Amino acid sequence: MRYSVLLGFCLALFLVACGGDGISIEKPCPGSPPPLVLCPGLDQSFGIGGWTVLDSTTGGEPGWVGIDTEIDGSGRIVVAGSSRGNWVRDMRLWRFDDTGALDSTFGVGGSVVHPMPGGVDDYAVAVVIDGSGRILAAGRGRGPGSGYDVVVWRVDSSGALDPSFGAGGVAVYDHNPGMGADDWATALALDAGGNILVAGSTRPTRWDHDTLLLRLDPAGDLDPSFGTGGVIAQDFSGGTNLSDYARDVIVDSSGRILLTGHLTSDLNRTGTDLVVWRFDPSGVLDPSFGNGGLATYDRSMTSLTVNEIGYALALDAIERIIVAGTLSPVPGSGWSTDAALWRFDPSGVLDQSFGAFGVVLQDGAVGKPDSEDAAFSVAVDASGRILAGGQSTFAFCTTDMVVWRFDDRGTLDPTFGCQGVFTHNPEAGHPRSSSASSIEIDRLGRIIAVGAGSSSDFGINLTLWRLLQ
Question: Contact at 8 Å (CB) between 221 and 248?
């Protein structure tokens, strides 16, 4: 899911864009990686030693980037993202079998490309699979000389566009037609009725981003019973040039819709606060949650602005709300960025039994104190353990993918990886970068992580890992 967050100061760092610029890695800068430490956990029956990468030597191409993943009813792994040619991106889907090999029954050689009709740049950042096995992907696209629009694609199990959805399998939404403003999707969810929830942002002016939430019916049309004509577009920051973003969406067992993201916290645009919204099934903010439907977190102090951003949401068995994200700068720790988890009770109050007053911070996942760490995804396994996926900086401008596992209290699980932390870099021992943007848990409890890694030709490549539980 992806995120407009700069973690570090060198060209090799990932720019994780939620409605921004996708995930991109430029040429790595020099650095001395730490001694190679192989934490246990990779499933040796998957790919090559537990991971697979699509680059020019394995049937892929530089610029193939996977952002989000979902597992279908047959255990196959679907990945949404983009491919790039001549600096133009196209939405792309891949499907892998249980061994980590591309599924030849899907599209051409295991992947499909479906550019936005008339578009010149488009990509997918979110994917879900409906009860009929159809794959829905969302992202954004733009035509010549226009701003970006929300785009939702639906394909059948073979990868072909579903003509019964939208216009020929594609639904496009422009919140401000004719203005050239940007709209984008960052997350997808399905409700119990098969309706499609699309979360994201709309930008009415250059510096003003507003939260956007759409509900489409199963045919791809806006649902008029939701919000205003199927749309919620609202400025929750409370000012013209102040911004708020929705970065993930989920639906609870009562059909209520939860979003997470951030709000701009002051008129000078110098800080952001974590926020969780909850709407009832009709799109009205739930007054029984937080403060009028919003639960926020701000750690800022009088002399220091702290930025908190939520990237991903999960619910545990008793519907406590877990948010993964970042907090920066962290006082007393070199002013670095830390990976963060928050847990709220079902009423929107921070759960004091979790971590320190409801918050868990993680720094130095790769053994480098005061590193730049970030959690972009979160999941809860069948035993109630919390998994978060993201990245950590081990050299000045080089990152490793990270998966953390915590117990119910927010303590690292020492039985997982290296004392609760698993890290991996496909180019271990060299100044290359990798990051996990999405994690899922399969029916056997194995952990699937998808993301990107830089390669020896300085491109970026889709990378997929599978970890044992």
Answer: no
For residue 350, pLDDT over 90 is answered with: yes
Pairing type for strands 307-315 and 321-328 reads antiparallel
Which H or E run contains 338? strand 338-344
Per residue in 312-345, is it b (16+ CB within 10 Å) or e — as a string? bbbbeeeebbbbbbbbbbbeebeebbbbbbbbbb
3-class DSSP state for residue 405?
Answer: strand
pTM above 0.85, yes or no: yes
Most confident of 181-190, 303-312, 364-373, 389-398: 181-190
How far is it, in rounded angstroms, from Cα 11 to Cα 279? 39
pLDDT at 63: 72
Task: Classify the C-alpha dihedral 304-15-216-74 as positive or negative.
Answer: negative
CATH superfamily, region 5-467: YVTN repeat-like/Quinoprotein amine dehydrogenase (2.130.10.10)
How many other CB atoms sit within 10 Å of the CB of residue 349?
12
Q: Residues 340, 287: contact at Cβ < 8 Å?
A: no
Residues 270-323: pLDDT tens digits? 578 899 999 999 999 999 999 999 999 988 654 566 889 999 999 999 999 999
Q: Where are the domains of the chain?
A: 5-467
Residues found in the chain: 469
Across residues 224-253, what is the average pLDDT? 85
CB 447 within 8 A of CB 40: no
Please calculate the CA angle 362-314-154 and round it to the nearest 5 degrees: 125
